[in-house]
Amino acid sequence: MNDADAPAEKSLNLLFPLPYRVFGLLGLGILAWATNLHGLDKLGVDTVSALDLRTEGVHLRGPLISHRPAGYSQVVAANLYTSAYRVFIGYTVIWFLSWTTYRLATDGDAMLVDAYGYIPGVTALLILALLICPYNIFWKFERSKFTQAARRCFFSSSTSPVCFSDVVFADIGTSFAKVLGDVWLSLCMLMPGNTLLMPPSQEGWMRWVLPTIMSLPYIARFRQCVIEYNHPHNESRRPLFNAIKYATAFPVIFLSAAQRLVVEDLRREKGDVIFQESWHGEHQLFRLWLLVVVVNSIYSFWWDVTNDWGLDLFKMESPPKPQEKRLPRSLVLPHLHSGTPLMRRDSQETLVQEPLRIPPLEDPPNHRRTHPFGLRPVLIFPLPVYPLLIFLNLILRMTWSIKLSSHLHTTSEGSVASLWLEVAELIRRWLWVFLRVEWEVIRKTQGGDPKIRYDDGLEYEMAHDTPESISQSDL
């Protein structure tokens, strides 16, 4: 750590120690999800159908325009993001009161930090107890949905299709990989004999616990891709290539943990001066780690733009399939561009079914390109949003792959730069969700039939919801 950074490091660890930074980042994640739901609804997207937001087992959603009571989707969507806002406010009140109590007790005195270290510990136990509380208090419905989604990501049947909401949930989890690592470090810092002012050293087998915990979201997402690939009706290799993308994160994480071996080898050659260097290019293990960082960053960026967002920027041209040569189907959507709602509503808040034709997902062969270079024919957001997000995604993808490397921050966990990189990754994921859901909505709409299209691109028959089948729990 640079000497010039030492005051900032000490100040941040003293005033805002790692456990409270974890609390804050988790709260930011809740707020991001609430604004994702709110923003998509304001854009006219039926978030309930688009995200397959039923979580009692695998429930197949209806089409974007379905035979539901007037205003059903709007009421459910409004209830979803309103509840998410309430959870965020309640959660923030808890950890903010805890942090205020901690600050008043320590009064900026480094000698008192560990004496009152039990305060963040008790706060963490309280939040965990509320999360798993079986009683109908403190947003039980929302808590149950969260725990059910997490359980499905790791323990769902290998023969059941993967809901799109679970795909988004697991992808968001990968952006919290470093935060999960911070949870482990916070627990270690709260153990007797350790201090909140700096993370403890990870020796022996303990050095592998941190990378294993950081790998959990990638394991969940990798598992989903394998399930999709092995599904009996799957005829695409896309889930396999997607699984490879998540697999490239594991070498980044574990080779980072192995960099301590690099330091030990070079210390025997150069002495203690090696601790003042951050570049060890002469060591093969260091070069291998750097290579997997580059591979993971480039592959992830390419997949985001081409597959998750459906943009044409890096797509390889392929001959059109026979079924792609037919004319575009009549769709129940108004024109999609520059923020125009995906579905219009009339003054009585009922859905207006207005059959209009929109461009197909790909330009017909031997025709001039009908959309801006690198994008696609159907766009919901204003045109400048797409190149801006592509650029931001590239920059933050590169930095986030490095951020997965625990050896770069275990000795300076309180750095302001480290905190802001984590915040930047959460913002990147927040923006990613908008374009990811936009592309999924376009894919479902282009399908046209009353079927559900999961992330593997397959379609499954679904049952329409009728007024009699709508229960109070759905609302």
UniProtKB/TrEMBL annotation:
Keyword annotations: Membrane, Transmembrane, Transmembrane helix
GO CC terms: cytoplasm; membrane
PROSITE patterns membership: EXS (PS51380)
Domain EXS, chain residue ranges per copy: 201-470
Compartment annotation: Membrane
Residue ranges of the TM segments: 20-37, 75-97, 117-138, 284-303, 378-396
Main location: membrane
Membrane topology: Multi-pass membrane protein
Keyword Transmembrane appears in the UniProt entry: yes
Organism superkingdom: Eukaryota
This protein's record includes keyword Membrane: yes
Protein name (record): EXS domain-containing protein
